[in-house]
TrEMBL record:
InterPro entries: HTH_LacI, LacI/GalR-like_sensor, Lambda_DNA-bd_dom_sf, Peripla_BP_I
GO molecular function: DNA-binding transcription factor activity; transcription cis-regulatory region binding
Keyword field: DNA-binding, Transcription, Transcription regulation
Lineage: Bacteria, Bacillati, Actinomycetota, Actinomycetes, Micrococcales
Protein's name in the database: Transcriptional regulator, LacI family
Domain HTH lacI-type: residue ranges: 9-63
Any Pfam family hit: Peripla_BP_3
The keyword Transcription is assigned to this record: yes
Top-level division of the source organism's lineage: Bacteria
Keyword Methyltransferase: no
Gene3D superfamilies with a match to the protein in the record: 3.40.50.2300, lambda repressor-like DNA-binding domains
Length: 335
């Protein structure tokens, strides 16, 4: 026998529970002034108890504001962008903004245009792009939008609001950590060629070695997966390198497995540094030295930048977050 689903709470239910008018509830929902603190608290408590979710469409009719954002993201499961996505959505929810998401597989102009046109039909007030790929920002920025846009990008771009982490500086710090341990032959397993983060990490590796008068002898290119790290680990000359800086942790775990299969040890024969500090990194064998990114701050900074543009506030470029070196057992001085 079918049962009726619970009725969704309305603004009138909230008003009744809080003992106020529905107009007062509307003022609280839209952060309007002239609501006493005690009254606002009662309304917010009623909203929580009833699990009331205001309708963006109804709110837009009253305020001429939709309080909605369009979010374009890639189809991959890379740890960095997916973590930033989670924190961006959490920050938007806390700020009482709704987010419509388009998960893109292809970044051609027609696909991007279709996604943005769908957002505009929903009356979004701004668009955010979370992607590690250069062509993503280029595709969206080239559309000359009339609403604000913010992009996750490691390198600032003229005329575009970007938020990101200092990938280049962290990569140099990763190599410096290995050099300080006494390594002079440091290889690199880079990420995909069209990844901005991978480009910056490779650039940092090259520049830090060159600053110490050392050659950049060995480099491979992977696709962020453990399989790519494993392939590289089976192929590279173990006698040529005593350390490898890997562009992300997933490839690092594959590399460590391959080195072990070849009868060598990490860090006894080869020291390995990763990037991102994924949750599993502390439990690798050995635990992985890596760089931890503050994805929560990046997601929050993206939202605050976008909302400032939407509200016509002065927007100053936020400083890049600085990844932190997490020293574990995968690095040591060379034998």
């Amino acid at each position: 026998m079918a049962t009726d689903s619970p009725r969704q709470a309305t603004i009138f239910d909230v008003a009744r529970l809080a003992g106020v008018s529905h107009q007062t509830v509307s003022r609280v929902l839209n952060d309007l002034p002239n609501v006493r603190a005690a009254t606002r608290a009662r309304v917010e408590d009623a909203i929580t108890k009833l699990r009331y979710v205001p309708s963006p469409a109804a709110r837009a009719l009253v305020t001429r504001r939709s309080r909605t954002i369009g979010l374009i993201t890639t189809g991959g499961a890379e740890f960095g962008p997916s973590s930033t996505l989670l924190y961006f959505n959490a920050a938007a929810r806390d700020a009482r903004w709704s987010v419509f998401t388009a998960n893109m597989v292809d970044w051609d102009q027609n696909s991007v245009r279709a996604a943005i046109e769908a957002f505009l039909r929903q009356s979004v007030e701004g668009i955010a792009v979370i992607s590690g790929y250069e062509r993503a920002a280029e595709a969206v920025a080239g559309m000359e939008l009339t609403i604000p846009l913010v992009v996750l990008q490691a390198t600032p771009r003229l005329g575009l609001d970007t938020v990101g982490a200092d990938q280049y500086g962290a990569a140099r710090a990763a190599v410096k950590h290995l050099l300080d341990l006494g390594h002079s032959a440091v290889g690199h397993l880079a990420g995909p060629r069209d990844s901005v983060d991978a480009q910056e990490r490779e650039r940092g590796w090259r520049d830090e070695l060159e600053a110490h008068g050392l050659a950049t002898q060995l480099m491979g290119v992977g696709d962020w997966t453990p399989a790519a790290g494993h392939r590289f680990g089976l192929e590279f000359d173990l006698g040529a390198m005593t350390a490898v800086f890997v562009a992300n942790d997933q490839m690092a775990v594959g590399l460590i497995a391959a080195i072990t299969e070849r009868g060598r040890t990490v860090p006894g024969d080869v020291s390995v540094v990763g990037f991102d500090d994924i949750p599993e990194a502390a439990f690798f064998a050995p635990p992985l030295t890596t760089f931890r990114q503050d994805f929560q701050r990046i997601g929050q900074d993206m939202l605050s930048t976008l909302l400032a543009r939407i509200n016509s506030e002065t927007v100053e470029a936020l400083p890049q977050s600085i990844p932190t070196l997490i020293k574990r057992a995968s690095t040591q001085a060379p034998r």
